[in-house]
Amino acid sequence: MKKVGNHNSITRKLFLGLALSLIFSLTSFGQEAAPAVTDAAAAPAATTGGDAVKGKELFNANCAACHKLDAKATGPALRGVAGKYDMPWLYKWIKNSSDLIKSGDAQAVKIFEENNKAVMSAFPQLSNADIDNIIAYTSEPKAEAPVVAGVPVPGAAASDSGVSNNIILGALAFVMVILVVMLFLVNQVLSKVAKANGIVVTPKTPTTSIWKAFARNQFLILVSAIFLLLASAYFVYGFFMQIGVDQDYAPIQPIHYSHRIHAGDNEINCKYCHSAARVSKNGGIPSLNVCMNCHKNIAEVAETTATPEYSKAFYDEQIQKLYTAVGWDKTTQSYTGKTQPVKWVRIHNLPDFVYFNHSQHVTVAGIECQTCHGPVQEYEIQKQFAPLTMGWCIDCHRKTDVKMEGNEYYTKIHEELSKKYGVDKLTAAQMGGLECGKCHY
Ligand code: HEC
Ligand code: HEC
Ligand code: HEC
Ligand code: HEC
Ligand code: HEC
Ligand code: HEC
């Protein structure tokens, strides 16, 4: 029995080696992941005086409706305006240009005349420091080429995980090799032990083939037949259940409209465009007038909006499609009267025998759009996130508590029903959310 002890200590050493190599591969993976973060924080370009980053925010909030940096809009282009006028004059002008014009300031009157006597809004709420920040922003040099290298793009994250995947694969392969070597060694040790104990290892003698043995054993045949039937039933069922389920359906739209850029980067509220979702049955697609509230002034995207996949030229062309559809001439800044409808492709579509109401879920139940539609603010291309099957609706009705607080309509029903079920909280299902008639006409 002493020899068995020896064999044990060999495997123990091997296991130790295995554990060490695992720890090593895991730590090297951890180190690989860390440095990717550090170089992402590029320092913002320094400017004299104000803070250009804050200035950009103020500019977008107050001035962008009428001014662009590099092109004339309602007002003149503002890049480098600090070179034209001195700061005290700019403070006065921006806080209240009409007053300045009325006071007879020659410079102010001249600009007013040059711009067809268009009136600029007054901004008494802006402090001198705010205006310094805005002017710092307008004094930044124009970005040259698309700054793809400096901007963290989604693609970069993907290639990072590619590297770590390779490391994990490498580590796994390494572990496999060690296991094989280990088996080989254990086998050798065992046969040595056997030899030492005088056991003769007889080579395998060919017996009746495994298939013949199988065919003779009726019980085995029965068990495997049942197993095969069950397995194929499982797949057939799965196949039939996904018929008519259009999860992840993402058709190509007539205008490449990106929710990522609108609802994500620019944080436009879903309900600004889909205002119907709050008050009616449908979510509703916005009319093109809603788009033009902003796009009268946004004829092109910023250089930084371009991604490796979609160039600035591509995006600008999409906005041009919008202009063609509503008949907007961006050079004269006026409508031509020639319109053509945009035929958006409908993505979500329940069968006609199902009744679904947005306001009931969005306004009454207070459910976020994202619960049912997924992280829309990250979608470059809109798609169907949920399966929209009956099971999906029912499942959520079983799990989701109804919001009772501050809703008088529910106070009385709640008291009665919670007594009936003996619970504090009520799910949508307990309120009647499983009754066929509620969802089916
Ligand atoms: C409602 C539209 C409107 C808004 C909003 C607006 N401006 Fe103006 N701005 C004008 C117009 C129009 C002119 C041209 C002068 C005129 O007709 O009064 C002008 C002129 C100017 C000028 C003089 C430019 C030049 O080259 O002569 C400056 C500077 C200026 N605006 C800064 C700002 C700043 C800063 C903001 C935001 C805080 C702002 N404007 C918001 C319409 C606007
Ligand atoms: C600036 C306007 C705008 C904003 C903001 C907006 N959307 Fe949309 N949405 C659209 C347009 C236009 C379409 C049709 C084109 C498409 O499907 O990409 C659409 C389509 C959709 C669809 C698919 C409709 C179908 O055909 O089934 C869903 C779901 C949706 N939006 C949800 C959201 C959610 C959730 C948000 C907020 C995170 C949001 N939208 C913000 C304009 C907007
Ligand atoms: C609240 C303001 C706002 C509204 C409303 C709005 N947009 Fe935009 N849109 C923007 C901004 C901001 C950008 C990005 C500009 C940039 O990146 O420099 C943009 C970019 C775009 C682009 C180019 C990028 C892309 O998504 O392909 C298209 C096309 C576009 N909008 C179409 C539309 C359509 C169609 C509607 C109406 C359903 C609409 N927009 C409504 C503000 C708006
Ligand atoms: C409880 C789940 C749920 C929530 C929450 C929800 N939706 Fe929907 N949405 C659906 C379903 C289901 C459909 C398909 C409706 C149909 O085909 O009749 C749909 C369809 C849509 C459509 C396509 C047009 C239509 O009405 O058929 C838009 C746009 C939309 N939703 C936007 C929104 C927005 C914006 C929000 C948030 C304010 C929101 N949805 C919240 C489930 C939901
Ligand atoms: C994310 C969870 C969720 C999903 C998914 C969902 N619902 Fe609901 N639903 C609710 C909640 C919560 C209520 C209770 C709202 C209330 O009255 O306060 C409700 C209420 C309802 C009601 C009213 C029930 C009543 O008692 O009056 C109907 C009808 C309904 N849902 C239909 C649907 C249909 C059809 C679908 C699938 C297409 C669906 N719902 C998907 C959460 C959900
Ligand atoms: C919460 C909402 C809801 C309730 C409650 C509900 N259904 Fe449905 N039902 C649906 C939806 C959504 C579909 C469409 C599923 C699809 O298109 O895949 C559906 C589809 C069906 C279908 C068509 C078969 C299929 O899968 O497409 C039948 C039959 C049906 N329901 C019967 C019932 C009966 C019977 C009840 C009552 C016990 C009931 N439903 C209660 C939402 C509901």
UniProtKB/TrEMBL annotation:
Residue ranges annotated for the Cytochrome c domain, each copy included: 50-142
UniProt keyword annotation of Electron transport present: yes
TM region(s), chain numbering: 167-186, 219-240
Annotated keywords: Electron transport, Heme, Iron, Membrane, Metal-binding, Signal, Transmembrane, Transmembrane helix, Transport
Signal peptide: 1-33
A single GO molecular function term of this UniProt record: metal ion binding
InterPro entries: Cyt_c-like_dom, Cyt_c-like_dom_sf, Cyt_c_III_dom, Multihaem_cyt_sf
One Pfam family this sequence matches: Cytochrom_CIII
Protein name listed in UniProt: Cytochrome c2
Organism annotation: Flavobacterium glaciei
